[in-house]
Design brief:
This protein folds into two domains: 109 residues, 2-Layer Sandwich (Alpha-Beta Plaits); 190 residues, Rossmann fold. The protein has eleven helices and 14 strands. Helix 1 crosses helix 4, helix 6 packs parallel to helix 7 and helix 10 packs parallel to helix 11. The termini are far apart.
């Protein structure tokens, strides 16, 4: 298969906002080149201060967001939509695109994704990486690809850490806007009885089903294409929504209909500048915030239905 690679260059101060917009416009995996803390990170990660000259010459004032569009989708349409969103958000950007083949696409991902330990129980492992599981973690195998959610982004890792503390053998999980299926799959790996994921994007659901098979949890998970209200009729003990603030605010109108009386609602994907809007939404629709978590300017909340 052939792909269109989109590269979006922005100043570092706009990176997180630009990344969030990219995830809205193109619900696929992405990776970011950001060399702003190259020297600090090289020591922290590799414990060396000898860095290749090629890396030292990288511009540390800018980040580059890489996205890939499959030939089955309309890359031109996605690119124009991205340009409109960045312009409307007043983010200065440079956008270029080029065609790449499968091997170029795969190699591009592999440079940037490694095994990532989450909390005390999980590890996210790309298929090409070996992991020495000395601490007997639950291994969630997932590759970056045609659906958002690999566990490396702050919003997803926040949700995974929360799930670690909330899931037990009686839990039933609903993952709204499931993307790659990572939260539903993690829920089952952590011990949940069943999980359901729903997404309006058919490609995401296709990938989520494949990921469930890879992780040997297909018998406990169902993934559905479509709108939440039209596809879901049951109630769940744990409801997750790792999406953007505007969609969360719309969900709050009726998400309680899908929650058991003592259920929790986990929401993430909330950038710091939208935090107060979401908190006001919780109050408006009668949700009680019982936990607040943050990482890298992103927020996650755990809520219960009000009396």
């Amino acid at each position: 298969m052939n792909w269109t690679e989109i590269c979006i260059k922005v100043e570092n101060k706009f990176t997180e906002q630009a990344e969030a917009i990219a995830n809205m416009a193109v619900p696929y995996g992405l990776y970011i080149e950001d060399y702003s803390d190259l020297i600090e990170q090289s020591w922290e990660i590799a414990h060396v201060d000898l860095i290749e000259q090629e890396l030292l010459e990288k511009d540390r004032n800018y980040s580059i967001i890489h996205l890939y569009i499959s030939e089955e989708d309309n890359a031109t349409e996605r690119i124009e939509y991205l340009k409109e969103l960045y312009t409307a958000s007043k983010i200065p950007f440079e956008l270029v695109s080029e065609n790449v083949n499968d091997s170029q696409w795969a190699d591009g991902w592999k440079k940037f994704f490694k095994c990532t330990e989450i909390g005390n129980k999980l590890v996210i492992r790309p298929s090409w990486e070996e992991y020495d599981n000395v601490n007997n973690r639950k291994v969630l195998s997932i590759d970056p690809g045609a659906a958002f959610g690999t566990g490396t982004h702050a919003t997803t890792s926040l949700c995974l850490q929360i799930l670690e503390d909330k899931i037990d053998e009686n839990s039933t999980v609903l993952d709204i806007g499931c993307g790659s299926g990572i939260l539903a799959i993690a829920g089952v790996l952590l011990g949940a009885k069943t999980a359901v994921g729903v997404d309006i994007d058919a490609q995401s659901v296709k990938v989520a089903k494949e990921n469930a098979e890879i992780n040997n949890v297909s018998n406990n998970i169902e993934f559905l294409v479509g709108d939440l209200a039209n596809k879901i009729s049951d109630k769940y003990s744990v409801v997750c929504a790792n999406i953007v603030a505007d969609v969360i605010l719309k969900l709050l109108k009726n998400v309680a209909d899908f929650m058991e009386d003592d259920a929790i609602l986990i929401t993430s994907g909330i950038i710091d500048i939208r935090k107060d809007d979401v908190i006001e939404g919780f109050k408006k629709f009668g949700f009680e915030i019982i936990e607040e978590h943050n990482k890298d300017n992103w927020y996650a909340f755990v809520c219960r239905k009000g009396e």
